[in-house]
Fold these 2 entries.
Entry 1:
Amino acid sequence: MSWQRSVRRTVPGRVATGLLAIAAIGLLAPIAAATPDTDADAAITAAWQANGGDTGPLGPKDGGVYPAGDGFGQNFPGGKIFFTPATGAHIMTGAILDKYQSLGGPADSDLGFPTIDEGAGRAADSRNTTFSASDNPVIFWTPATGASVVRGAINAAWDKLGGSAGSLGVPADDEMYHGDVVSQKFTGGELSYDRKAKTFTTVPPELAGQLAGLQIPDDPTSAINAARRAAGGALGPLGAAQGPPYPIGADGLGQNYAGGKIFYSPATGANVVTGQVLAKYESVGGPQGDLGLPTSNEVDGGLATESRMSSFAAKDQPVIFWTPDYGAVIVRGAMNAAWQKLGGATGSLGAPMADQTQSGEVITQRFSGGVVSWDRSKKTFSTEPANLAPALAGLQVPEQDVPKAPPANPNASSTNGNKWFAWNWWWLLAIIPVLLVAGLVAVAAMRNRRRRSDDEFDIDDDEFGHRDGAAYDAVPAAARFAPEGVDDHAAELYDGRYARGGLGSAPSTSADRDYPQSSVSPWGAQEHGDEAVTTREPVAALETSTTQETDAPQEDDENPDKVDTAPTRLPILVERDPLTDTGRHARIEGDEPLRSRTSLHLPLDDPNLAPGGYPIKADTKSGLYWAPSSADYDDARAEIWFASEELARTNGFVRGN
């Protein structure tokens, strides 16, 4: 105890004791701090009391303060009061409140919160309330016209022309969208604004002169909200928003919704993409790919049957065109120029059937009504049927940027030829010792690796039935690297089939592909001089891998005397005709080679049993795939199994609901 008393007598001891006492008092004292709820309650109560309290037009409180979107609200028999710290507490009643709530109110509309109490407008018997959204919306009401929203460019032009007291009068209806043009009717005329051209037109037309030079701020959030409203708002195909906007590149934004996406940049504006057009866009890189951002909302393709189309910002003017028969197909550059020249999807070529292909300098694309080819070196078109080609003579073709060739080496000029020759010889002489040293290092590394391999395989009884380190070298290369479960005989077939392209890889050059020739064109025999047009026919219908059976007997490693006569299923690669491939279920070509196993697997004897390592179901008829997490995974019928969702999407399939 005397030690404890001596500690308390020291200065540090007294300080520590004091701090403990203060902490104890703080813990025992009641906490009195403001909260968002209490701030909202105080502000709303003050606004209510200023408007007469229980005896005012709102009447007594109907319940307590409740969260509303990013702020709070409180109900009264005669209306509501909404509050945020930024906007304050403001009263709304009657038809204006009804209009606000019909559009989603503070939680689900894009109007924001009221910034003033509902009050009289400049027109006779009118009422209005302004809101906090960045495009300055107002709800304006008269007994004759009801409540309408005026916002953005239309609101700016209306104010410029005198508002409700000017020549246009009061709004007679809400805004309407026609492509890139938004319009609104007033009792004294009509206002229209083209968001791409950034120009106004008016009824009567003489009012447009007063709007010359009116600047409309390009606000990304306002543009995205306007694009969503143009697509039908929350009740349209986009549905509810999913998370906040996210950056794309230096100045772009994206916004996800339950049914699609909106992409924005100052140069392209905000545009909606949905469904299989969106799936195709994202399969080739989306906004980070070479198509660029969309430059228009997804629109109807103009066909008698269902079709959709979106345009994109790349210099070769690409579009994605979707039909139920052929899926989503990219048309760009020379193909798009020729297609549009011949009337687009409603012209003689019809809808695109598959993405364009290139052979040397010739680009080709097949449509439902014919084929177009463009020779880049000759700058000429050819078509099937041939009578379409004359209409394309002299057509200007947009091209993508081609990287500039590096500047010529000044040492390679004709005037310095001898000097360049001597300079290179000196370098060759200097490199020879380096190459010799590199060769010695490589030989040593190979010997060391061989020694490690010998040690690794120097076991008493290895899988190949040998008892010394030479066993590995005695086994054919195919057997060493063939997929697991393939016997020696089958491995020789495997090695022979894939020796050129590497294990599991497809032939990489046109010389490696086997296309039988046919002299019959799908469009009928088209004669060019004395020769009939020939077309390639696919070797098989599938794009990537399937299986082949071999009758070679199989040995059991544990029981060499036992012979398994069951056929071995070996992966093989088959080819497709790039022109008849419709694009809906087609593989999207990539540069990555196949690895030690294939990307897909055909069903097992039990079609409901997933092959090992292939959990993703896919159906070639519907173009859909299902992951194990999908609600209808167990009921879905699998015609192909994929190793991953990414591989399913890469092959043109879309995730099923």
Entry 2:
Amino acid sequence: MKLPPSWNRVLLKQIIIDTQPGFAQRPEGGKEVVPQIRTHNVSPDGQIDLNGIKFVKPSDAELEKYRLSPGDVVFNNTNSEEWVGKTALFNEEGVYVFSNHMTRIRADRDKVDPEYLARYLQYLWKMGYSRQKSKRWVNQAAVEQEVLRSFKIVLPSLEEQIRIVTILKQADEIRRLRREVIEEAQKLYGALFLEMFGDPRENKLGWHRKQLGVICRIAGGGTPSSNEPEYWKGDIPWVSPKDFTSNFIEHSEDHISLKALQESATQIIPANSVLIVTRSGILRHTVPCALNTTEVAINQDIKAFIPIEDVNSTFLMFQMHTLAAGILKRVRVGATVHNLETDYLSKLQIILPPIEKQAEYSRRVIHLQSLIQNINTFQIDLETMWANMASAAFSGDLTASWREAHLKELQSAIHLHDEALGKRKNLVTIKEIVRKHRPWMSQNKRTWIKDQMSELQSEVWQAIQEWKGTVIPSEHLDEFMRTWPTEQLENAKEQVIRALNQLAGLGLIAKITIPNEDGEYVTGYRGFREEEFSGMADLEALEET
């Protein structure tokens, strides 16, 4: 990465006072407890998020050693692979400590602005640099302290650091306001329902009522056997709890064949049925409810409520959302999953205003949905613009015109900054370094590495390119191995898992941690997406800085 001549490349340890890992302690209640910043308290946007904060009772010595002060940089040193490296600037008032999965970094403010440092470390996480530097094992990764202290930081003068932070904070504010608009817009569905029909639990408007099981036919689902590969090569959408990402299910990640439908417990559910998740780890927090806009099959953790009387499906689905808080209280807690009894759902009292009024609500929802989709599209464009802005900020492009306009004022500041870093520059010379030519970067699928693969690695790599979605060994390994002959392999499963890890280590496939249907985090493997290939050159450039 070519930087402006006034910028420096330094190691993190050269511009900080110290790094301090936190301490582990079980959360406690009662008096004299102190909030403890943990992994979930650093958001993916690089902000301190106090939702779900835990409290501990440190000793006086622990409080002195692990207390956070405004201006401290909090780095997530241990987490699943995709989250290790998240970073935020701590600026909260009051007494806080931090867990052993976090590292407190104290900046030398004569050399680096703490917020600039936090944002640059967060940028390294976004680019995948932190993940690359981490030590990995099953379902977890960690950045060791000495590795962290050797992170490479690009560093303009303090004045330019502050200018970069100011611009990025303005962009953050625009993003925050846009997200708030989306969050408030999502609430309009329920607000519109209450405005038109009132609270269905109270029914003060005196609408006619019937039980949900009377106005709907209830249908269950099932999961075709993973031992039959042809079951999963059809074109029938198969919905599971992970597909409940919006109010309307338009597509699913998995598809099954007609043979799977005929030979398993699942069935075709007509469009405009209300789908409710009745068994899942996520039932601890919410009751997922959605409307399928096309014919689908469903898995065993979902129940479909198919209208058989005069009831509008959209009206019914949002009425269920209105009732969700009460429904959640009836969830039965099991060892690992939570259950919602179908019998209880079937007896829910549903208000039934005139069908014309229900249809009017549906039309207004469709109009509102179109507006929200336009806002979401704008938000996606805004996120892309922000990512480009961050890249420009840490390459010098974002402040190039400002730097040129303030060149005279900056000369003294640059000189003082260089002295603080132990660098005295009497003469600034610009030397353009031409990036080494790497033909393999332009070769399809990095052919040079493929040529060095073992036969098994090649077969696993080819199989994962043909696999639709993510391979989760704990769930899909038997089915995955049936895509090519492995009978001759001794300890075949162990060898295949080892090959997957080796391919991920070579950078040929992605190794990720994702929640399964029970809400538990498991390891999965998939081919790279287009945007991940495009980021490889940037990541390599960071390695060279």
